[in-house]
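Give me structure tokens for this 57-residue protein.
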Amino acid sequence: MNALVVLAGNLSGPGTYIKIPFTPIQISVGNLIVIAAMLVAFVAALIIPFPHKGEDQ
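Here you go.
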């Protein structure tokens, strides 16, 4: 349980934001991590083949 608290960080304070240069886009680190994880899952779903029956069946 202690490891989860360390990974989560300090959730009682204000969030940490990243500003993308030359754009008005500003995103929180937590949301950026979730978006990156979703992109990794999407790419993995495209690359990993679906199970299928053999040719003789």
